[in-house]
Amino acid sequence: MRRNLFAIVFLLVVVFGYFLLKPNQPNKTPAISSPSSQEQQVPIVGRIGEGYFNFEVADTDTERIQGLSGRTSLSGTDALLFVFDTAGKHCFWMKDMKFNIDIMWFDANKKLVHEKRNVAPETFPESFCPDVAAKYVVEVSAGVAEKNQVKLGSVLDVEL
């Protein structure tokens, strides 16, 4: 009797252990993800000028290098927010871009200190750099900055 009980317990441990330790099976339905990341981020809602935006945050070297490269478009309420560890004259280019964008540089106090509007993919390999140090950079579709009355001195109102 004791031997049967031991065998049953042993079998249960093996079966439960298998299900707990087995590797996750990939989904049969492919996940939709942006080209810049393997995992879909939950956007952070914030404001610049008169506009509210869903900010995707790029705060690693890999995410910052990828940027919006390879994407075909960006809605008028979506933005990519680059967060740097320190303020500096961070330069941007249009490598592998497929649409025009507005680029806005913000200082450590989140005040707009430099901008470049309607930057075209054809400008690559030219780099666009701010005149002063910036800690945050925001990219939006071309024309979005003007539409939302963003101007030098506007504040990037977003919780990070």
Report on this model:
With about 160 residues, the chain is of the alpha+beta class. It has a single domain (about 40-155), classed as Protein of unknown function DUF192 (Jelly Rolls). It has helices at about 1-20, 60-65, 145, and strands at about 45-50, 50-60, 80-90, 100-105, 110-120, 135-140, 155. β4 (about 100-105) and β5 form a beta hairpin. Residues about 10-40 have low confidence and may be disordered.
> Count of DSSP helices?
3
- Calculate the mean pLDDT score and round it: 83
By CATH, the superfamily comes out as Protein of unknown function DUF192
Structural class: alpha+beta
Strand order of the largest sheet: 5-4-6-3-2-1-7
Instruction: Compute the CA-based radius of gyration.
Output: 23 Å
Largest sheet: 7 strands, mixed
Residues in β-strands, percent: 25-35%
- In the CATH classification, which architecture applies? Sandwich
Name the shape in a single word: globular
By CATH reckoning, the class would read Mainly Beta
Q: Predict the CATH topology.
A: Jelly Rolls
- Tally the beta strands: 7
Order of helices and strands: HEEHEEEEHE
